[in-house]
Design brief:
The chain is mostly helical. It has helices spanning 21-25, 29-43, 46-55, 62-78, 81-94, 112-120, 122-133, 140-156, 168-181, 187-192, 207-228, 232-238, 244-260, 266-269, 272-282, and strands at 98-100, 106-108. The chain contains 15 helices and two strands. The termini are far apart. Residues 23-258 form the ER-bound oxygenase mpaB/mpaB'/Rubber oxygenase catalytic domain.
Length: 286
């Protein structure tokens, strides 16, 4: 399959609109909590899992990789003219990523079905995070609007319209088929969802000194959110266990988040890039 930059439709080209759903949620703390679930679904695809296993620094520099990934996601939504440049940068970065997966099958990161799946995972995870952590679930109209904005992000990333379902009605059969036919408990997916994962300390002293005590708390919390905010069918395909007790705890956690986060000042509620973009938009500046 070709890895050249694909065509784009004229309508809905460029970053999602200022004031849209993604503009409101993508840079907020609640969406950040949901990202590990989407990332784990991505690497449960054997080609993605192999690429991350063989080419990523997620084991040796998870904090740096996480920071770069967050910045990239923020640029897709809030970057304005920088969004397209970030999409091109990502395609260039992934162009050389190729190899053989755990089943001996060749893969390339920019194979259209693989690259599209990485992007597609965000939509169901955003919906699930909204259900548990948001003020209220999205309405049907908002789900459609969110998907239309997600397609725009896909175009920013260089995903051809032919490789993503064109509507919500087309998305869910595609999603269920991918979960049923492609997802599996890859080594990387199991690692990201493990409550006892080995994670290096996030920085210099003093966190490094306290890390032996903090790491188990962090990894258990990360695993809790990763598994809990993942759609149940994807969770089952990856072989992850979720109990009724965990479900109750997630619902209680969500209630707390729904109370606390809206009370935070905007500069604490949103990541810095999103906060600055929102301020510029209110001031009428690009």
């Amino acid at each position: 399959m070709s890895t050249q930059s694909p065509r784009h439709t004229a309508e809905g080209h460029g970053p999602p609109p200022v004031g849209g759903i993604l503009w409101a949620i993508a840079g907020e703390l609640r969406s950040v909590l949901a990202l590990p679930a989407a990332m784990t679904m991505q690497v449960a695809h054997p080609a993605v899992g192999a690429g991350v296993d063989q080419h990523s620094v997620f084991r040796t520099d998870p904090w740096g990789r996480g920071e770069r990934s967050l910045r990239s996601v923020q640029l897709w939504v809030y970057g304005g003219a920088e969004a397209e440049a970030e999409g091109r940068r990502l395609r260039t970065l992934h162009a050389s990523i190729r190899g053989v997966d755990a089943h001996g099958r060749p893969y390339r990161a920019l194979d259209p079905p693989v690259y599209a799946w990485v992007h597609a995972t965000g939509y169901p995870v955003y919906l699930r995070a909204q259900r548990y952590l948001g003020t209220r679930p999205f309405t049907e109209a908002e789900e459609r609007q969110l998907y239309a904005e997600w397609l725009r992000i896909g175009r920013v990333l260089g995903i051809d319209d032919r490789d993503m379902p064109g509507s919500v009605e087309e998305f869910w059969p595609y999603y269920r088929a991918m979960v049923r036919e492609r997802l599996e408990p890859t080594a990387v997916a199991r690692e990201l969802a493990a409550p006892d994962a080995s994670v290096p300390p996030p920085g210099p002293l003093p966190p490094r000194l306290l890390w032996p005590l903090l790491r188990p708390l962090f990894t258990r919390f990360r695993a809790f959110l990763t598994v809990g905010l993942m759609p149940p069918d994807a969770r089952e395909a990856i072989g992850l266990v979720w109990t009724r007790g965990q479900e109750r705890r997630l619902r209680w956690f969500g209630r707390g988040v729904r109370v606390v986060v809206p009370l935070l000042p905007e500069r604490l509620r949103y990541l810095p890039l999103a906060y600055q973009a929102r301020r510029r938009a209110r001031a009428g500046r690009p």
